[in-house]
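Batch manifest, entry 17 of 40.
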Amino acid sequence: MSLLTVYGAPEGFDAALIARRAGETAGGVVHAARDDARLARLAEAIGFFAPEIEVLRFPAWDCLPYDRVSPNGSVVAERVATLCRLIEAPRGPFVVLTTVNAAVQRVPPRDVFAAASLRLTAGGAVEPGRLLGFLDAHGYHRAGTVMEAGDYAVRGGIIDVFPAGEPAPVRIDLFGDTIESMRRFDPDTQRSSSPVSELMFRPASEVPLDAESISRFRTGYREMFGPDAARDPLYVSLSEGRRHPGMEHYLPLFTGAMDTLFDYLPGASVSLDYQAEDAARLRFELIEDHEAARRAPPRPGDLPYRPVPRARLYLDDASLGAVLAHRPGFAFSPFARPEDAAGVEAGGRPGAILTQGAAGASVFDEFRGMAQRWQGSGRRVILAAWSAGSRERLAALLREHAMPSFPVASAAEARATPGNTILLAVLGLERGFIADDLVVVAEQDLLGARIARPPRRRSRADQFIADATEIAEGDLVVHQDHGIGRYDGLVTLAVDSAPHDCLRIIYDGDGKLFLPVENIELLSRFGQETAGVALDKLGGASWQARKARAKNRIQDMAAGLIRIAAERKLRDASLLTPEPGVFDEFCARFPYTETEDQARAIADVLEDLASGKPMDRLICGDVGFGKTEVALRAAFVAAMSGTQVAVVVPTTLLARQHFRLFAERFAGLPVKVAQLSRLVTAKEAGAVRAGLADGSVNIVVGTHALLAKSV
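Output type: C-alpha cells
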C-alpha cells in the first residue's frame, strides 16, 4: 500500500483533517483505524470537530478467524446497518470509520441487503406472520425477553423487537393486522418510553437464511468438502433451517461472490491510521495461522472443522493494495516530516504541549501563561477532559488558579466563545495539538498519565441470576436443592387468595417447581454447553448424590494441594539469577514500556527464581496485558543459567505463535528454541525430542505433546 503520508497529524488533529476531507469529497471518506479503541476515539473527535458530518461505524467481528463461535449480535447489527446506509447513499458529507481487521474481511454483496428491509408505521398495517417471517429469515433470534440487538419476543398481539442499528428495542402493539402503537422501551426494566412513528427493520445477520441461500450453502459445502461433510453438525443444522454457532465463517457459501467494504463506497477517498500497515501485516499472519491450524487433522473425539479458503473470506496484502491502488488516499503520521521523506506537513504538533516550567512553578501557572500567549495570537484554547467528571474537576482546578473556563460541546461552539476563556470539552485524547485557530490541550498534558479502570459490565453469561429478565424460556438453570431444570417462564399463582409471581421450572418426568421470584437467588445458570444435558428428577436422589461426590472430590483435591505445597516448602531448587548486562540487553528488545503491574510481576518472578525454592506463582491478566513478556524474561534467566525451559500452551495455533515470538526475541543469543506439537512433522518432532534429551534444545514451545512419556 503506497499512499501519500500526512506528517504532523497527532491524534485528534487527524480527526479534524478527516472531517475536512469528508466535507470536500462527494463520495465520502473511509478511514481504517488501527483497532476498535482508536475507532471509538476518532468517532468522538469527529463528532466534536464537525458534528454536521455523518459518522458510520463499521467494526470488525469480535471473534477470531475460523472460530467456532459467531460474532456478537450488536457488532453484526452495527455492521449491517452501515452497509444498508451505504446502499441508500447518504446525501450529505459522511465518514465511514472502520478498523484494519474489518477492512481486510470480505462482506456480502450489495444485493443481499438491497431489498432486505421492512418499514412499519404507527397506524399502518402488517400481517404478523409476514413480520415474524422477516425476522426469522434475517437473523433475528426469538427470546423470552428482549435484551440485545437482534432479539424478538412474542406475547399475543405484542411483539418486542430490538432492530439492528437502533439504539433501543421497540414494543409493537398489534390489533389484528393494524399497528396500534410502537414505543421504545428499556431492556433492563422492560418499561415503555417514547413513541415511534416510523421504524425501518434491517437484517440482524450478514448470513441470509432463506430457502435459496440455504440451498446454495448445502450445494457449496458438499462440493467444497465432499459428500462425507453432509454429516457435519453445521451442515445438518443449517439444512433444517436452524442457526449454528460459527456459521458466519462460511458466509461465501451462502452468498456466492463476496464484495469488500470499498465496493460499497465507489467514489470514496481512503485514509489509514498511523501504523495501520503494520496492523494489516499482523492480521494477515494471524489469518494464515488460524487457517493452517484448522486444516490440521482433528484429534480423536474432536468435531471436524472444514475451513473455507481464506481468499474467499479475506483480502491479502496484494488484493488490498489492488483495491486501494486507484483511489485517492493518504496515511497519517504523528511525527514531523523528515527532510528526505515525501509527503505533506499537516501543521499539528506531536507529543505533550506543556513542558516543565521554572523551579517551584506549578503546571497550572505555566499553562495560564501559555494560554494567554495562544489567545493573544487569536487561537481558542480547549482543554480536553476524558469524562464529564474529569471536566468538572478540571474546572475546579482552573478556578483555584484564577482561570475562567466555559464548557463547550463542539469546535464550532468553541470558536464562537470569547477568546480569553479556557474552553472545557469532553474529548478522549492522549495528547493535544496546535491547529490554525485552535489549541487543544489534553488532560494528560496537564496532569500526566491517567489510571482508568472501566466498570465491569454484567454479562448475561454471569453465573448467578439476579432478575427473571436475565434468563429466557428454555434456558437450563440449577436449583441449589433440586438440581438441573429447564426454565419455563413466569406464572402468576393464587396463594392465600393473593396473586404471586413464580418461576416455573420443569424437571425430568414433567415435574414442575414453582419458585417465588423473591427466592430467585437459589438459581444459577447451568453453563454454555446445554446439548445432551439430562434434567434431574424433582425429589430424586441423583442431585444430592452428585453434590456429595463433588464435595468429596473437592476435599481430595484440597488434600492433594496441601501435600504438594508442603513438599515444595521442603524442597530446594537451583538459584537462577540474571547477568545484569546481557539481561538488560534482552529486556531492551521489548518494543513497549512496561506497565506498573507488569514490572511488578517480572520483579516477583525474578525474586522467585533466585530464592532457591520451587516457584509457585500464577500471573493473571487480560489479553494484551503483557503476560508473555513475563514468561520471556523468566525463560531467558532460566535458559542462560543452564536449565531447560518448557513453554506449554493449550492449542497448536498458540504454540506456533509463541514459537515465532520466542525465536525472534532470542535471535542472536546462544539459546536454541524449538517447537513440538501435532503440526510438526514426525521427523522434526524426533529431532526436537533428541535435542531435549541431549540438552542442545534450551527452550521448547509446545502443546500437551510436551507432557507425553516420550519427552
